[in-house]
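Dear colleague,

Thank you for sharing your sequence with our group. We've completed the structure prediction you requested, and as agreed, I am returning the results in plain text so they can be pasted directly into your records. Please verify that the sequence below matches your submission; if there's any discrepancy, let me know and we will rerun it promptly.
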Amino acid sequence: MLLATSLMLLFVALDLSVTWSHYASLLTLSERHAMAATDHERATYIAAAEYASAVLGSRLIVVYAIGVLSSGILLVGLVMLRGVFNRVSAYLGLATGVLGIASLTSWGVAIILNAVCATLWLLFVGAKLWRLGRA
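Please find the predicted structure tokens below.
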């Protein structure tokens, strides 16, 4: 469970430091581009936006966003097989992890099924945690 938690924290740290900072840059640069008075200023903002756009379009983002998080969910699913969560929740966690890792191949079916399983897994886990909190 420590390894799963570490992978999920790694995902959060990478997502906040890489992805969201580049989204913020693109939003700021697009606002400045819209207010630019000359073609030279607009070209400067477009050139600056190319870097953030390239980072967000890179395959590495997909690997950490899906691979690291899916690996963490897979490990959580394995742990769930032994704990207070029911088998359906555990198997949904396992399926989410495996399909997430398989989706790194860009196979459309794996991507869609991963999203469906992740949504169901979060609903099952959330419902169980809510019931545990009320007990």
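Summary note from our side: The chain has a mean pLDDT of 93.

Kind regards,
the structure core
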